[in-house]
Amino acid sequence: MKEFLIGRLNLEALPHEWFTIGGTAAFFAMALLAVTVITRMKRWKWLWNEWFTSVDPKKIGIMYFLVSGFMLLRGGLDALMMWLQQSLSSGSSHGYLSANHYQQIFTAHGNIMVFFVAMGFVFGLINYIVPLQIGARDLASPFLNTLGFWLFVAGVIMINTFFVFGGQYAATGWLAVAPLSGTQFSPGVGVDYWIWSLQISGIGTTLGAINFIMTILKMRAPGMSLRKMPLFTWGSLCSMVMAVTVFPLLTMTLFLMFFDRYFGAHFFTTTLGGNAMMYTNLIWMWGHPEVYILMLPSFGVFSEIVSTFSRKATASYWTNVGGMTGVSAFALSVWLHHFFTMGSSADVNAFFGLMTMIIAIPTSVLFFNWIATMYKGKIKFDTPMLWFLGFVALFAVGGMAGVMMAVPPIDFQLHNSLFLVAHFHTMVVGGVLFGIFAGLSYWFPKIAGFRLNERIGKYAFWCWTVGFIMAFTPLYILGFMGATRRLDHYDASTGFRPFFIMALLGGIVIMAGVLLQIVQIIASVMQRRRLADPTGDPWGGRTLEWAVPSTPPSYNFTIIPEVTSRDAFLEMKKQGLPTKKVFEDIHMPRNTSSGIYISGFAYLLGFGFVWHIVWLIILGVLGILTCLIKRTFNEDTEFTITAAEVEDMEEKRIKKAHASRAGKDLGTDEDMGLKEFIIIVIKWALDIVKNKRWKKW
Amino acid sequence: MVEHSELIHEEAATERAMFGFWVYLMTDLLMFAVLFAVYAVLHDNTLNGPTGKDLFSLPLALSETLILLTSSFTSGIGIVAAREGNKKQVFTWFGLTFLLGLAFLGLELKEFTEFIHAGHTISSNAFFSSFFALVGTHGLHIISGLLWMGITLYYVSKRGLTKSMVRKLTLLSLFWHFLDIVWIFIFTIVYLRAFV
Amino acid sequence: MAKPKHKLGMGKTVGLILAGLVCFVLVNAALLHGTNLALFSPQGYIAGEEHRLMLYTVFILLDIGIPTLILFYFVAWKYRETNKKAEHTPNESSGKSLVFLTWAIPFAIMGLLAAVMWPATHRLAPRQALISDVKPMTIEVIAMRWKWLFIYPEQNIAAVNFVQIPTDTPVQFVLTADETPMSSFWIPKLGGQLYAMTGHQNLLNLMATSPGDYPGRTAEINGSGFAGMTFTARASTTDDFNSWVQDTRLASDVLDSSTYNKLLKPSENMPSTVYARTDPNLYNNLLVKYSGTHGGHAETATE
Fold first, then answer.
1. Does residue A70 lie in a domain region?
2. Is residue B53 part of a domain?
3. Residues A604 and A657 both lie in one domain
4. Residues A542, A607: one domain?
5. Cβ–Cβ of A272/B26 closer than 8 Å?
6. What mean pLDDT comes out for the span C130-146?
7. In total, how many domains does chain A have?
8. pLDDT by residue (tens digit) across A436-481?
9. Do A619 and A523 share a structural domain?
10. Which of A311, A345, A403 lies nearest to residue C61, judging by beta carbons?
């Protein structure tokens, strides 16, 4: 009976390690705070109707940003904990974490950063920007989009569940390679949490990717042929095509691992005929393209930014597109370079080394094309451009390190070393994350209706860049010293310690950068009137997203534009923007709660599988099926806004925008600096204390 | 005028749904590709236990194949009927498809239970793991196809052959053909090859 | 528009960046002083070749990387908005020759690298036997949780977490594992790593060129004892090696199946031990244990 009710879940599994207790306490404190605030402000209904059940890709995009932002903090904290351990744990000192805790932390760090930070931000950007860029009012399947997002959230919750319900996280490294991740060597529930967190969010990714392929290929504004499509949309398309190609591989691989662990199958075991090397192959067939899935939208962002801030058309549009499509074409033919050291023959290794060098060609081509775009441009150095300049330096270094490791004999020495860790962090932070930050600061005015504070933004950029160099140069050096990754302890005679301390300091500087980014957003809100973007076109934009007001109405475009040239909006500006407004009836999708319910049941299903709770598994399956059937046969999923209503809404929107710009900003007449911000915050705090304002709450 | 735009809107939605469903089928095909690859790697790892040749019954597999092929054909006729708006024929042909699907499933379950009774389960060895995973995943697809078929027919009986229902039936039969093609591969790679 | 006070000029910014970089390089150089970059001080033939290859590759890459970066930042600086003298052609797209160059340069560099990489990969393949006048020697290596067991089949001795080899003698390490996740056998100063996996024999050929103690470890995570799974590889002259073998034969412990089964039990940070005799069937028993895993026989080096 007990087995049936709670499976393998028991009191012992509840958090009793200090770091899980800490996590649990923090989790409950935050949840309690959030619930109190929302209840006090009577915002539950609003949250549900306007946000949670929304199918508006712009709102879903913002929710992706928020979730990923939180996860960035969580993953960043993990990184600091790791470096702290490595700085302490040398010789006779063993630091403050046990080997097992340490291994759980770096596994969680990797999973969170790749799946829930980078992926989330990328999907957020694509959600918000792609429909605007292609002149669409919504997505091909708004339901799939909300479902994809909520499955992503279910994955986020799953990966953090062990803080609350106990157990542990996987201690296997982010890809949980077999046979280490099999029940023989990892008997606990850690790997099961890993499987279901990735499985649920991965299925969400596949659905989202199918949706965006449909949207980009079938819903572009009239006149926008593929040869006139903006570069960010191209990057997103390439990325999404790769996602639908490789995420099914991940899904199936995870299922096979699940069969091994739950039903005792022998796919990747050491005994009874299992083949662990097959797991390594399968997981990297997904894993390597995954990096490009993250990278390509980022390349797209940079292509847009270079062109806009150089005030010049992309030097060679087809080279740019060719670079991006070239990368995705070869992405599935390089996976074996992740394990040259497994003992393949020289021919096989050399072949994959060659393919890796081939895939470096389209990537380098993008670089040269960006230089050609800047050439004879008129370059403004606003923060988005600054992120780009930082990206180029880091990405060049990281890329060269990558090509080095494409030479198998060199890889024999560098594989699994901290050099490798430094390499891929340079690519993922310098390439993906900087791209995301560039994109966020570029499109922030569109999203929020006001620009970001440039001054603090630049501080944040410098903290990130300087911190990054401080943190990862030592890792390159450590690699040359023969330091492997994932060490929770090392001998004092190795001489690693000063470099780990340096890395920790660098990590702290990066964290300062993250804090400054938060400060930047708060400071920008304080000065939102002055920073307001009444035109919808703060940078002198070239593509359609700048043709709509900031922030765009739910239907994006009152009239779907006719596209005649590549830089559609630039052309419209040249032709003269239409002065007379015309309105038409607009079909819009209705909000739906199906996505959130299905994801809820998917979570229960996953939780049931983690702890072997049969009734929960059955409940999950039935729940998902019922919701899916209800949704599929619901014919009332759309509504029409009549032309008159649209006109009315437009008027209201303009009035509201005017009203929001009335009133006075905090601070002086320029972007406030850090000092001014701190003074304002202190004054505000003093004011609260002096006038006992908390009583009002 | 309004009706015309309504019509275009509806047609565009159908076109998108068809396209999206094709993309989905491709992702599903890739999942099967993994299973095929895994089977190819592991099918010899029988650890001196019985091999496919010792266990498989070719007549059984062949009848499964014929049943599924026929059901693919009947679902095709069902779609023609749906396009013509002939509700009665839709029920006849899809009903037949449903029964054939059930028969296929029955045969597959018979095979599985025989294996399991003989002590060969997914955890016996790598060969059985890969066999059960591949054929079982196909079987799960058949089950979900039957479920989907039953529910769609129920709604057709309630709502008639509306545009959206015809669209759903079309996607369903696409799915059914897809499962047929996957089965042809399973038949060839798993069953036929064991005897070559 | 008056320039806001807080804005640094372009020149000052560039100066600050350069100064910062110089400081950073100096700090790192100071930290490096007295420490040892294992990969840059190879003590084995293979490590030496890999080091040389690394330098070649870096040289080729920097050859194109540095000029490109300089060009990049120069263009960014030259065509800055405030430079009124610079040309601005908003609609000009690259001419044919520029597009050609954009593609040709990466092609050329990667072609060059591939030409270096292909033969080197074959020459330095781990299973490739080293050519030498000295008779090669075989050492069987078994990865266990969390220790390395070395068996000398010719000398009939064994050691845990310690391996001694004669210099200038090709040594073939036959790697496998027992009841242990994939581990990676790595002695940075002697040469690159290779995986040790259950049911497989991977061949790693190395040759030490000068005597000394070189740290080795697993480079692939394999559970909670991962960090402590280290060993010392001692390279010595042939004479020293032979006398070590003689000494070892007098050791008190022997490696029979009961000792072996004790070793199989997971343990961490095990001190190095030597064994006077080994059961000659141990290694074969291990192959039998995992046989049938792959169609009835243990594979030698995966294809």
1. yes
2. no
3. no
4. no
5. no
6. 94
7. 2
8. 999 999 999 999 999 999 999 999 999 999 999 999 999 999 999 9
9. no
10. A403
* Same structural domain, A476 and A612: no
Asked if the structure places residue B51 within a domain, the reply is no
CATH code of the domain in which A231 resides:
1.20.210.10
Please tell me the distance from the alpha carbon of residue A388 to that of residue A365, in angstroms, as a whole number.
Answer: 16
Judge whether residue A653 has pLDDT over 90.
no
Q: Write A13-20 long-range contacts (CB < 8 A, 24+).
A: A13/A165, A13/A166, A13/A167, A13/A189, A14/A165, A14/A166, A15/A162, A15/A163, A15/A164, A15/A166, A16/A166, A17/A101, A19/A97, A19/A101, A20/A162, A20/A163, A20/A166, A20/A168
> Do C181 and A313 make contact, defined as CB atoms within 8 angstroms?
no
In terms of CA atoms, which chain B residue is nearest residue A212?
Answer: B20
Domain enclosing residue B177, as ranges? 2-38+70-195
Give the chain A residue nearest B45 (alpha carbons): A273
Q: What angle do CA A25, A29, A33 make, to 5 degrees?
A: 175
Report pLDDT digits (tens) over A550-575: 889 999 998 899 999 999 999 888 88
A521 and A611 fall within a common domain: no
**In this predicted model, what pLDDT tens digit does every residue of B5-20 receive, in sequence order?**
677 777 888 889 999 9
The residue-averaged pLDDT of C155-166 equals 96
The CATH number of the domain where B23 resides is what?
1.20.120.80
Distance from the C177 Cα atom to the nearest Cα atom in chain B, whole angstroms: 20
Q: What is the pLDDT of residues A675-685, one digit of tens each?
A: 889 998 999 88
What is the mean pLDDT of the segment spanning A241-255? 97
Give the confidence band of B1 by pLDDT, cuts at 50, 70, 90: very low
Residues 6+ apart with CB under 8 A from C13: none
Domains by residue range for chain C, with CATH = 38-78+98-124 (no CATH), 137-300 (2.60.40.420)
Residues of B with CB under 8 A from a CB of C: 44-45, 47-48
Do A535 and A607 share a domain, yes or no? no
Cβ contact C293–B48 (<8 Å): no
C78 in contact with B at a CB cutoff of 8 Å?
A: no
Interface of A with C in 75-134 (CB under 8 A): 98-100, 103
| Residues B48, B41: Cα–Cα separation, whole Å | 16
pLDDT band at A667 (very low <50, low <70, confident <90, very high): low
Question: Per-residue pLDDT averaged across B129-136, rounded?
Answer: 97
Asked if residue A526 and residue A609 are part of one domain, the reply reads no
**CA A426 → CA A195, A397, A418, distances in Å?**
27, 8, 12
Residues 216-245 of C with CB under 8 A from A: 217-228, 230
Q: What is the pTM of this model?
A: 0.95
| CA A231 distance to own-chain centroid | 19
Residue-wise pLDDT for B68-114, tens only, equals 999 999 999 999 999 999 999 999 999 999 999 999 999 999 999 99
At residue C296, the pLDDT reads 40
> Which residues form the domain of A624?
599-630
Residue B168 lies in a domain: yes
| Residue closest to C37 by CA, chosen among A423, A415, A477 | A477
